[in-house]
Design goal:
- The complex is a heterotrimer of chains A (175), B (186) and C (167).
- Helix content of chain A is 70%, strand content 3%.
- Chain A has 175 residues and is mostly helical.
- Chain A has one domain.
- In chain A, strands 1-2 form a two-stranded antiparallel sheet.
- In chain A, helix 3 packs antiparallel against helix 9.
- Chain A starts with a helix and ends with a helix.
- In chain B, strands 1-5-4-2-3 form a five-stranded parallel beta sheet. In chain B, strands 6-7 form a two-stranded parallel ribbon.
- Chain B is 48% helix and 13% strand.
- The longest helix of chain B is centred in the N-terminal third of the chain and has 17 residues.
- Chain B is α/β, with parallel strands linked by helices and 186 residues long.
- Chain C has 167 residues and is mainly α.
- Chain C has one domain.
- Chain C has seven helices and no strands.
- Chain C is globular and about 40 Å long.
- The two termini of chain C are 34 Å apart.
- Classes of the chains: A mainly alpha (175), B alpha/beta (186), C mainly alpha (167).
- Chains A and C meet through helix 1, helix 2, helix 3, strand 1 and helix 4 of A and helix 2, helix 3, helix 4, helix 5 and helix 6 of C.
Amino acid sequence: MIALAIGIAFGFCLERAGLGDSRKLAGQFYFTDFTVLKVMFSAIVTAALGAFWLARLGVLDLAGVYVPETYLLPQLAGGLLFGAGFVAAGLCPGTSCVAAASGHGDGLMVVLGMFVGVVVTGLAFAPLRHFYDSTARGPLTFPQLLHVPYGAVVFAVVALALATFAAAERWERCA
Amino acid sequence: MRRALAIVAATGGVLALLAGSPYPLDVQRLATAVAREDDHVTAVELAAWLRAGKHRLRVVDVRTPPEFAIYHIPGAENVPIESLTAVPFPAEDTVVLYSEVGIHGAQAWVFLRALGHRRVYFLRNGLHEWLDDVMSPTIAEGAPADAQAAFDRVAELSRFFGGMPRKLTGRADTSEDALRARRRGC
Amino acid sequence: MSEALTSAPLPRERERVAEGRVRARAYSDPYLAGTALGLVLLASFALAGRGLGASGAFTTLAAKVTSSPDLHQSNWLLLEIAGVVIGGFASALLAKRLRFTAVKASRATIAFGGGAVMGLGTVLARGCTSGLALTGGALLSVGSWLFMIAAFAGAYALAPLLRRAWR
């Protein structure tokens, strides 16, 4: 199935980038290793540009691609919590699977921890429900929010990414 | 190699800024949908959907807020037509647009279809169709049996929404005044 | 995929090469790997009408185990994450990086705890770095960028306190 094939390619790329190594990932947050930033933003830029241009040329039906829904408060809170857990674990859900698959023992621990965390949250869901459903905004995108053309936002993302890369390279050279 | 990637990205980004919308407008497909009458629903169909609690149905009133406040279809949300393109409709939602008489509803249909939404419909005769066919449906006395049966089904739906179905005695009065009188409602 | 050794090997890699033992390949250039990842994401858009994900696979398994109806379920993601495991394994194997390391108890505990906190975060946010930051980021989703910024903020905020753990 396509899901499996895409997953294999996904896992392969992550491991190639070195993101199966928790120490390498954590380096991002101690300013010693900017791989996380470089890989993530390169991927985002490539996919955003690619999606825009394939759609613009009529090859891809952009409206048919599922856009994650926005829930302002839960995603803000979830993000903060996720980041805290991330810097402790040194791995995210995807990379933890890659780490475990490539033999890193701590990868397996992160996988188990995440599973337990998800299970407990699911069981103790009732008090969270109201917060969980709050501030829903549907599949809101920046072009819609800011009333600017889609291409303009793509341009901004590319510009932001390139500037960030330049800054990261500078830092790595001087540090 | 990095430099090459960066140049490609930068070029792609700058051109994107100037390139226009990534949602190509396939006018022919829209025209075909109109001809096949895939573009609209009747007020009675909408009423049936509303009563059945159709999954992920969204009824959107594209008139101004004051007009919306006076009367709107139950369960409708108000999105004035100029704000419509900024509202993110998930692809799984079925959107039914309506306006006073149907013109803005039809235009709004084109806008949402142009943005790629597929499950979009409008009320051909707008709110007037709702008021006439759902809130005050009528049938002439002495109409054939199948028409009576159809009317009875609509009447039941009408009462659900607090409407007033009527059997007309004598000649059906379809003068403008009578129609307007029905629309004022009570 | 051709591998140009453009980045300097990590200290650990250099050690191993010097010792003349297994010669593992250095990691790919991050920009190249990132671009490749972006192409995978793009392929997903084109072929499956959706992006990547990871936490969704965890919630699906958890939902199956605990019959919790509130957790998001997706069989697509289960298959995809199986692929991720296979792909990660294959890449490590081909690059001769496959080695099963033992874990210190302290590291194991922190990894587990960090994972648990991430679990909570992903349920609330309805996604993780793969599904939100990468996919939602590429699709210009407001909530996804918000999540990504919050995640980086949370990580940088807690980093000083965990410095000792990473020594």
